[in-house]
């Protein structure tokens, strides 16, 4: 989102971002009872009550203690909510704050944080630094809200969340080219705090990248297209798979995206407590990097690199500028992208044509996080900020980059430069992908 520069506007902006995150946290935690909040719905996830107090503990550490210079409110619980001290699977056995206490703690921290935000102390510090901390914490809460929505999807039992379906598609994908040519050349990748005051450390610094000509899918890969891969025996043919992915699907008996099952010749899926036929025209959801990579190979294509994805999303060939979002510099509206948990599913392909990139690539933001072929690595000149554990400790070949944001990603935590990452086996996340291919090789001599 566009971050204003005057102190007063900045204060209002930070206030709105914090309030928006808290409204969503309440939505996700008020709809279930205490037993549900403290239960572990999957060993991949924390109990919801852990996320709830972790959000506020981070807020206390950064906004009350670091920015506000206030004394610690509850230093004794810091280690309980340290994500590095306790793997998710072990969190239910910790002496966590019970739901009522976690909520009281959250309210207490927030009250004092708003006091810090109002107070003169903010003025005395470099505005961008202090403002960044508020933006970072609002984004952190929204990221955990997406994590909690994943927990809801893994939770068994009747539906507790509801949202209207996205409107029908505007464009007919069959009338558009299936892929878009991205011309070879340099573009500016990443961003700076001058252009994007709330950019996280891994998005910085902006730097020039040369990207050779390539072609990229106009839309994310749909369920219908992915089903052809499944029905063609794609999960039984090692030719398509990275050997580590092949070993993993053999070991786990994987034969379709997570939450899919075949019944009477039809593919059904479970989505937030409801079982429904898999809709053909929706971007495929809940696939691992290995599944995305195997589909691409089967289709005679490959995943885009992270630089290719960002160039397809941000490069304006007329001005040579890199835009904040595919559609330009304006904050997202519902016409641009399916973001922010307004719907509990990706929008069908052909939705949100106003959100297309200058080169004509559709639905890059929102709907599904898109796997790229790239490892999560620092940009040249990277500096960890404000703490190594946000990005730096995850750099390396173990994690693959996802781009674009899902239907569950909040606008405040989503932009053309935003980088997400996960292990290549993970598929409980709201992940999909699109494919790419190399451009024509440059010809020597003549022409
Ligand atoms: C950026 C989504 C990979 O959830 O692990 C939350 C965000 N970092 N708390 C994650 C995050 C610290 C992170 N991802
Ligand atoms: Fe966190």
From TrEMBL:
This is Hercynine oxygenase. Pathway: Amino-acid biosynthesis; ergothioneine biosynthesis. The lineage of its organism: Bacteria, Bacillati, Actinomycetota, Actinomycetes, Kitasatosporales. Residues 177-437 form the Sulfatase-modifying factor enzyme-like domain. Pfam families: DinB_2, FGE-sulfatase. Belongs to the EgtB family. Its EC number is 1.14.99.50. It comes from Streptomyces coeruleoprunus. Coiled coil: none annotated. Signal peptide: none annotated. Keywords: Iron, Metal-binding, Monooxygenase, Oxidoreductase. Catalyzes the oxidative sulfurization of hercynine (N-alpha,N-alpha,N-alpha-trimethyl-L-histidine) into hercynyl-gamma-L-glutamyl-L-cysteine sulfoxide, a step in the biosynthesis pathway of ergothioneine. The gene is egtB. Fe cation binds at residues 54, 140, 144. Residues 18-148 form the DinB-like domain. The keyword Metal-binding applies. It catalyses: gamma-L-glutamyl-L-cysteine + hercynine + O2 = gamma-L-glutamyl-hercynylcysteine S-oxide + H2O. Gamma-L-glutamyl-L-cysteine binds at residues 88-91, 422, 426.
């Amino acid at each position: 989102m566009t971050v204003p520069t005057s102190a007063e506007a900045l204060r209002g902006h930070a206030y709105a971002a914090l309030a928006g995150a808290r409204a969503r946290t309440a939505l996700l935690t008020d709809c279930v009872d205490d037993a549900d909040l403290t239960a572990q719905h999957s060993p991949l996830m924390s109990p919801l009550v852990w996320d709830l107090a972790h959000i506020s503990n981070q807020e206390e550490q950064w906004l009350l203690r670091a920015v506000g210079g206030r004394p610690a409110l509850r230093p004794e619980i810091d280690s309980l909510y340290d994500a590095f001290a306790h793997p998710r699977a072990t969190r239910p056995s910790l002496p966590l704050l019970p739901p009522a206490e976690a909520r009281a703690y959250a309210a207490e921290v927030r009250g004092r944080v708003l006091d810090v935000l109002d107070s003169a102390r903010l003025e005395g510090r470099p505005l961008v630094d202090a403002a960044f901390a508020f933006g970072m914490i609002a984004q952190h809460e929204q990221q955990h809200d997406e994590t909690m929505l994943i927990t809801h999807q893994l939770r068994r039992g009747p539906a507790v969340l509801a949202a209207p379906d996205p409107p029908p598609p505007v464009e007919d994908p069959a009338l558009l080219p299936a892929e878009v040519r991205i011309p070879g050349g340099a573009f500016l990748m990443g961003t700076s705090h001058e252009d994007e005051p709330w950019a996280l450390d891994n998005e910085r610094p902006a730097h020039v990248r040369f990207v050779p000509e390539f072609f990229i899918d106009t839309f994310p890969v749909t369920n219908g297209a992915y089903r052809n891969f499944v029905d063609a025996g794609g999960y039984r043919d090692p030719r398509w798979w990275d050997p580590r992915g092949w070993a993993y699907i053999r070991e786990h008996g994987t034969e379709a995206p997570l939450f899919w099952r075949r019944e009477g010749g039809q593919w059904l899926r479970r989505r937030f407590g409801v079982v429904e036929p898999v809709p053909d025209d929706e971007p495929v959801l809940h696939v691992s990097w290995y599944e995305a990579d195997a589909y691409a190979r089967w289709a005679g294509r490959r995943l885009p690199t992270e630089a290719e994805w960002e160039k397809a999303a941000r490069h304006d060939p007329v001005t040579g500028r890199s835009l904040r979002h595919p559609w330009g510099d304006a904050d997202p509206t519902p016409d641009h992208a399916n973001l922010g948990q307004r719907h509990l599913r990706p929008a069908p392909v052909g939705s949100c044509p106003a959100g297309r990139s200058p080169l004509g690539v559709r639905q890059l933001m929102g709907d599904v996080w898109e796997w790229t072929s790239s490892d999560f690595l620092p940009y040249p000149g990277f500096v960890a900020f404000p703490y190594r554990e946000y990005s730096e400790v995850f750099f390396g070949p173990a994690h693959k980059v996802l781009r674009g944001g899902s239907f569950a990603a909040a606008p405040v935590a989503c932009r053309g430069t935003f980088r997400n990452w996960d292990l290549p086996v993970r598929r409980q996340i709201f992940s999909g992908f699109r494919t790419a291919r190399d451009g024509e090789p440059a010809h020597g001599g003549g022409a």
